[in-house]
């Protein structure tokens, strides 16, 4: 079954969606969208590094994403003007990565694969990395769920309950870096932020609890991945962007339904 | 044994010094009220006691394993986070439906369990925060301006509820407030704060203290609570002279007596 490239692609998309969507809920609740982008964009630098040193792409991107996430996390704790700083880092990291990668012989040819993903070329070992990483992210989130939610709601309430909110931020930082490293093959660095945020945003109008939102988001992410893949085959469009298109369509529908219900 | 003891606290937020040389303690079962004008460091002191703010100098000692119940002044919940009252009560510890209901009942927020947090009025929100705080069976309940946004009968009812909760749980209560007349009568001890502890003691003693009157005026039932503190300049003296802030302040105040 895994010998079929389409089956491998579908499984890769599902694996990413299952981890990215619940994590994306936290990204949305904590207003970390720029944080996610900065980390994701930095990953292209990781690609350049991996190719130059002949390391697995997963290792290089994970390393750079982790460094970036820790750096950005430290900056956000300082507060003040963080939005601008994150924007600078997000775009700066992308540009530096794009320049760096042109110095690596041959990589220039594959550039769009790293920017937009190359899901149809996913191998069995890629699948193992994707599902392994996704399982780790989900495991982290489930393990820390109650503490993460409390810290997200209010760092002060967390402190009063004996929870260290900085530790919980670090848990999210690690989960984010893992997700970026896993997602690069599927949707590429430019659209990782989309796979985090859009399913979560689409789930919001129909969720009454955080858990319901995370589950719904995972479902919507999974459907978007499969529908996007199907659409890519039918219309001969790139798979990664097609998945994000599908998610955006679902968002448009749920947001309109939500708005209509609110008006009634 | 004291539940919480703070010694020689110095806290700055950014460049701005907020607390200097503050000593504070909480005994089991007592109701302590912290009063002081806006910007006097009341909330910061509370946040330092729960460990959310690290003091630059001095230390906070809590009884090992002390259970805290904290009711913040404000809680901004992001619009993208769906949260019902019942779900909120289960953070960070999962509780049963019956426990949640009982806590809401006791906090005077009976029928709110299924409502989204975003749809609550200010008063309802405060009561839900209180319900969550008492669910952990706290040994110390800390409330930051808990009656903000309540009318007078509303706050009177709120303080009666706090009394009842203390009677049942046997917990100590630390409150921040600027509703002097209500608060004074409901407290065992009042601490008057303005960057440093100006004076403290039994409510009646404090009400007679020159330092307190300088801050809040006399016999006006708190109507003059916006009075600027006339001793603010003593901070600068203390800076110039050096270290023993608490001592300096007390000394200065005595000297200034009106």
Q: Mind telling me the C-alpha Rg of chain A?
A: 18 Å
Q: Which architecture name of the domain at 4-67 and 140-153 and 174-256 in chain B does CATH use?
A: 3-Layer(aba) Sandwich
What's the CATH H-level homologous superfamily of the domain at 5-188 in chain A? Answer: ABC transporter involved in vitamin B12 uptake, BtuC
Gross morphology of chain A: globular
- In oligomeric terms, what are we looking at? heterodimer
How does the helix and strand content of chain A classify structurally? mainly alpha
The top-level CATH class of the domain at 4-67 and 140-153 and 174-256 in chain B is Alpha Beta
- The helix content of chain B is 25-40%
- Strands of the widest sheet of chain B, in order across it, are 5-6-7-3-8-9
Shape summary of chain B: globular
Main beta-sheet annotation of chain A: none
Helical region count of chain A? 11
The residue ranges of chain B in which pLDDT falls below 50 over 5 or more consecutive positions are 220-258
CATH fold-level label of the domain at 5-188 in chain A: ABC transporter involved in vitamin B12 uptake, BtuC
What fraction strand of chain B? 15-25%
Write down how many β-strands of chain B occur, each being a DSSP E stretch of 2 or more residues: 9
- Tell me, what is the CATH class of the domain at 5-188 in chain A? Mainly Alpha
Gross CATH architecture of the domain at 5-188 in chain A: Orthogonal Bundle
Which features would summarize this protein structure in a list?
heterodimer, A: 264 residues, mainly alpha, ABC transporter involved in vitamin B12 uptake, BtuC, 80% helix, B: alpha/beta, Rossmann fold, six-stranded mixed β-sheet, three-stranded antiparallel β-sheet, 10 helices, 37% helix, 22% strand, disordered C terminus, ABC_transporter-like_CS (chain B), nucleotide-binding (chain B)
Question: Can you characterise this structure?
Answer:
The complex is a heterodimer of chains A (264) and B (258). Chain A is mainly α. Chain A has a domain at 5-188: ABC transporter involved in vitamin B12 uptake, BtuC. Chain A is 80% helix and 0% strand. Chain A has eleven helices and no strands. Chain A has helices at 5-29, 33-53, 57-78, 82-101, 111-116, 124-153, 155-160, 165-183, 192-203, 210-235, 239-263. The longest helix of chain A is centred in the middle third of the chain and has 30 residues, at 124-153. Chain B contains ten helices and nine strands. In chain B, the strands form two sheets. A six-stranded mixed β-sheet of chain B has the order 5-6-7-3-8-9, sandwiched between helices. The radius of gyration of chain B is 19 Å and the shape is globular. Chain B has a domain at 4-67 and 140-153 and 174-256: P-loop containing nucleotide triphosphate hydrolases (Rossmann fold). Chain B is α/β, with parallel strands linked by helices. Chains A and B meet through α6, α7 and α10 of A and β5 of B.
């Amino acid at each position: 079954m895994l010998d079929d490239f389409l089956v491998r692609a579908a499984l890769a998309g599902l694996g990413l969606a299952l981890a990215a969507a619940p994590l994306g809920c936290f990204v949305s609740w904590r207003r970390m969208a720029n944080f996610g982008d900065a980390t994701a964009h930095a990953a292209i630098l990781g690609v350049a590094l991996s190719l130059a040193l002949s390391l697995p792409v997963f290792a290089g991107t994970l390393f750079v994403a982790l460094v970036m996430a820790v750096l950005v996390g430290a900056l956000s704790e300082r507060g003040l003007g963080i939005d601008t700083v994150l924007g600078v880092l997000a775009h700066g990291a992308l540009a530096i990565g794009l320049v760096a990668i042109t110095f690596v012989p041959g990589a220039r040819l594959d550039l769009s694969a790293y920017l937009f993903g190359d899901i149809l070329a996913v191998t069995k070992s890629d699948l193992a990395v994707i599902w392994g990483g996704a399982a780790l992210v989900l495991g982290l989130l489930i393990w820390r769920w109650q503490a993460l939610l409390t810290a997200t709601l209010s760092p002060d309430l967390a402190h009063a309950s004996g929870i260290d909110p900085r530790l919980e931020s670090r848990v999210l930082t690690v989960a984010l870096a893992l997700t970026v490293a896993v997602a690069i093959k599927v949707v590429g660095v430019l659209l990782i932020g989309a796979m985090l945020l859009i399913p979560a945003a689409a789930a919001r109008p129909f969720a009454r609890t955080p858990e319901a939102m995370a589950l719904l988001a995972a479902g919507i992410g999974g459907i978007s991945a499969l529908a996007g893949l199907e659409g890519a085959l039918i219309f001969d469009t790139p798979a990664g962007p097609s998945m994000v298109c599908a998610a955006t369509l679902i968002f448009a529908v749920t947001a309109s339904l939500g708005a209509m219900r609110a008006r009634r | 044994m004291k539940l919480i003891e703070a010694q020689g606290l110095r806290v700055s937020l950014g460049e701005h010094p907020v607390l200097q040389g503050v000593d504070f303690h909480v005994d089991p079962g007592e109701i302590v009220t912290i009063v002081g004008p806006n910007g006097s460091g009341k909330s910061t002191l509370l946040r330092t006691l729960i460990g959310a703010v690290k003091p630059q100098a001095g230390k906070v000692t809590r009884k090992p394993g002390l259970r805290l119940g904290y009711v913040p002044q404000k809680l901004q919940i992001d619009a993208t986070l769906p949260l019902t009252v019942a779900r909120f009560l289960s953070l960070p510890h999962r509780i049963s439906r019956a426990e949640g209901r009982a806590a809401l009942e006791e906090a005077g927020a009976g029928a709110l369990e299924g409502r989204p947090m975003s749809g609550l009025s200010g008063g309802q929100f405060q009561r839900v925060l209180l319900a969550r705080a008492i669910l952990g069976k706290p040994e110390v309940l800390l409330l930051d301006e808990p009656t903000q946004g309540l009318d007078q009968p509303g706050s009177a009812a709120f303080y009666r509820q706090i009394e009842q909760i203390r009677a049942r749980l046997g917990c100590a209560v630390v409150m921040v407030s600027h509703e002097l007349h209500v608060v004074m009568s409901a407290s065992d001890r009042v601490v008057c704060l303005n960057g440093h502890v100006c004076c403290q003691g039994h409510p009646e003693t404090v009400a007679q203290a020159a330092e307190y009157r300088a801050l809040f005026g006399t016999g006006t039932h708190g109507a003059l609570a916006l009075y600027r503190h006339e001793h603010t300049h003593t901070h600068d003296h203390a800076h110039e002279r050096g270290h023993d802030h608490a001592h300096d302040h007390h000394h200065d105040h005595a000297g200034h007596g009106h």
